[in-house]
Structure formats: structure tokens, C-alpha cells
Fold each of these.
Amino acid sequence: MIISFLVLLAIGATVSADAQPLGRDTQTSSSCQIGNIKKGASGKQCEVPIPQSCKVAINAATKTHWADIEKSGGLSCRFDSKLTDWKTRIIGTCGACQARQCSAKFTVYFDCTHPDSKPKAP
């Protein structure tokens, strides 16, 4: 993981996305990452892919969308409320990088329908 992050830093500003299962057939996460943001650069954004047959999970404790933002370098990031509807599009945006280099990772957790979970006819 650390090596791949260093590779991202070496090749310049990149955006990547991935989806990871969470251990149950009906839950998964998806993320996008912005790497190697140079000091003073702003307006960086990335789109978190929404897996097919999935909807954004709700955090039971906070009653909000179950999502997380990891960032470095004094970076201010958020899910863009104008570009994100949480059903068809999820966009993360970042402000200006305050350090020599910054990065951000936007992760969203999903509940998914499983093709085999439909009730079977008698």
C-alpha cells in the first residue's frame, strides 16, 4: 500500500478509484483518490464510483451517508453538495494544498442487493 502511494506521488497528480468488499455479500466500499497535489493547487476533484445494484449506506449513529475523507498536508476536502446527489453521482473536491504536497481519499460505503438474495417462488 505504501509503495503504491509513493508511486502515485512520483507520477504526478492522479485520480484513481476502487471498490472493496466489506466481508458481507451485501456491503462494499468504493473510493477515489487524488494524489500529489502541489502546494497552492486547488480545485481538484474526483468521482467515487457507485457499484451496480448498490445504494449509499446510512451511518446508524449519525443518520448521515456513510462516507469518509482521508487527507494530508493541511488540505480542506468535502463531498461537493452541488455535484453530489448520493444516488447517481458522488464527487469529492479539495481546496488549496497548504503543504509541499497533499493527497486525499474519498471513501463511500454501500449496501447492495445480491442477485441470489431475492425471495424464491414456491
Amino acid sequence: MESSLEIRLSEANERPVSLMGMSPEALESFMVVMSSLKEIAVSLVNSDELIFSIQEGSALCSIQAPPHAMESVYEEVDAAIRGESRKKEIVDPLRKIQAQLQNDNYNYGFWYKKPGKSVEIHARLKGARKLQLKRVKQSPFSYQLLILRGFLNQIGGKNPNYHFDFEDGEKITVECSIEQAKSIKEYLYREVNSLVLCKKWERENKRDEFFHKVLLNEPVNEWFEGFLERYYTEEDLVKKLSVIHNFMDEAFANSDLGHEILRNLLLAFNDERFHLSELKTPLVISKPFMDHPLIKEPRQALLETYKSKRS
């Protein structure tokens, strides 16, 4: 079942509105809202996933898309209303919609609808201050998942970590928790594939930092290498989320490692340094398997991280 964003113009100048009979002013207002809503959707979702409709019963504009795509659109709209969006392509058209909602001559309703739930948007958007882009300083670092393959030759320390030594003399230290260190210990003095979250610094004299996520066996590692290459080729968040969905669809369709790959995906994204949508997407994918023995614990841990970041 598809999810949707819907805007309905029910009254103009205290008169009921119908697609069969609208004043020039009401039509112009409705067209501004409809065009702006389309602009938001197409900036985030592939056009072939979107379905647009204009319906009678007042004047209703509806945009439908798969739940994961429309959820991301709603979260971007929500962020813009809260003043947390850095995306001009979202804030500018949403500001035009806000202006029409705040015009006392018109009575608009605005909803995000997904299976089993309807979320009202119009009251918050109408009551919000004029929408502005969030101004932030350029971060001196970024985070990225990557795979380190090396010889694990040391683990421990007061602040737990483990070490790789490479043939060219390079040494890398990976931070981990005490519980992670206990599970990693059995791989000491072996060649391993370590999926880590890398804090990449822009300054050349600043060393990158590495945080352990999970060790990958060789078959699973091959899947993740392809996934990470595709994931970080995309810059747009919604397209990245589609890569996650496609990755897991392919894994379950083309291998018998689906549950194991999904378990490692849950472990990989269990970190508050990811965007809320990046945390939520593996949760949505894993919901049908939430009681599976490989999935239950890592999914619950990621869910707690998601709730903590959202609060």
C-alpha cells in the first residue's frame, strides 16, 4: 500500500471550493500549492516512484509513493517546519505552501498518510514562523562506513581498542566497546574484515578515527563491499535509502545469507551519528523478521538508538 502527502482546499472566501467551480484567485492559490508540493516530492524521490492525482471533493492534490520514499519526504518536511533543514529545494516551495495556509481567505488541510495512520501537518506549518534554511558551519569532518581488511595483532587497553598492522608500515587503531572487544578477541592473530565507522577529517594533519561495528565473514563481506560502493556514490539521502532497500531485496532474493546480512546491516547503522532516516530504514526492513534469532537483539538495540536520537 502506498503512502501519500495530501493538500485539500475546502473553502475560499468563506465559500465551498469544488474543482468544477473555482474563482480565479482560488485557482491560482491551489496551483501554487500543487506546484510547490510537486517540487518537494520530485527533489527527493525518483519520478517513476511518484503518482500525482487531483481529486474532487473540495480541491484535493495527492502525491503517492512507496512508504519508505514518502516517509523520507515527510521527515524532510518536518525538519523544515522545525527549522532544521539545510535543503533550499525543500524550504523554498514549503514556504510558498505556508504562505497560502496563512492566508485567511483560504481554508487548507495538509496531511501525511501512511498505512494505518494519518498525520496532520497544516496546523504546525500554518503556526510556524517563516521558514528559513538552517545555517550551520561547514563540518571539519564527515562519517562513512568502510571495510578494513588486515591482520588483527593486538586488542585491549584501558579504553578498549584493537590494532591493524599493514605491510607498508601503516598502523590503524579501531575503538570498540568492552563487549565488542570480548567478541573480537577470538579473531586475534588472524586476517579479518572489519566494518567500521570512519570519522574522516578534512585537515591533512588530522588522523582519521575508526569505530568498530562488526566483523564480516568473507561471503557477507563481498555483499557489503558492493553495497557501500553504491551507497556512497549517492549524495542524496532518499536515493541512499533506496540503495539500502535494493541491497536487502537482492540479498534475500539471490542468496541464503539474507538474515545474516540484515543482522550486520542493523549493527552497522546502530549509531546516533547517522541521520534519523538512516537509522529508521533498517528498522523498517527488519520488522517482518523482528523475532528471528539473528535479528531480534541487534534490531532492539538499533530501535533504542533511534528512540534516543529522536527524543
